[in-house]
């Protein structure tokens, strides 16, 4: 058998035929689209880069020298104040206190310094100042409320009354109703110390505020009789001594019993004393000691027959010669008809 019969020739395909083909040249429209696409990409990258750089520069300038950003509003002076407060201060007071230079723009103002000026008055406990472009300064105030008054002399001037807040801050006070301020008791037994343009805060005013607030809410008549609250003994035994139109000296304890219960006892003692009308006017009542019996004294020696005329609910037991007595209180909840106030 021949070799040609053993190895037949391989079958040829059309793929074996040489087919020289030149690639189609890009047309004019294709080239134009390609150039536009590349241009768009490059333009977008440039815009994003410029925007990022601009943001960086603005932030850096604001942190280092913000006054350089005032060019757009340099010629726009502050036109108005928007004042919000929880107290009595008004726009006129804010304008006088801040004393802004004429034709000053918002960006030229030092907000930290303006905040300090407002809070230095003492009446403002917290001030928040904001810019509202192009020409409005927004001022939000949180004010202190006076709970008492104190007389003070500055230099050779005539003594004047200052307001005292719960936190002990002493300040002149502006915009309050005279009827309200005239009803505030005076603080005694303290020494005012100058601190800058104001005074060092008075210690113990939180206890005074609690006593006066409880009295005003529970027994307004007794509250309005309070004229002076002394803190002279507060540092020693935490007692408050009150002078009123009905009792010369009333001693309250701030650490042993609640003011509400002490005021209830005082109200009861005053009521029983008026009803009996036999032992003279009360001179002192010590509510800081005693629960069932309260030491009291009178401007005259109590009549020994007063005990026989007193009710079983309250017995005044006189001293021998000094005009002092122990006022016996009724048992708590002894009768559903008896009241605290």
UniProtKB/TrEMBL annotation:
Database matches in Pfam families: POTRA_1
Region (Disordered): 1-26, 298-341
Subcellular location: Membrane
Keywords in alphabetical order: Cell cycle, Cell division, Cell membrane, Membrane, Transmembrane, Transmembrane helix
Domain of life: Bacteria
One GO BP: cell septum assembly
Major location category of this protein: membrane
The protein's name in its UniProt record: FtsQ-type POTRA domain-containing protein
The organism of origin for this protein: Rariglobus hedericola
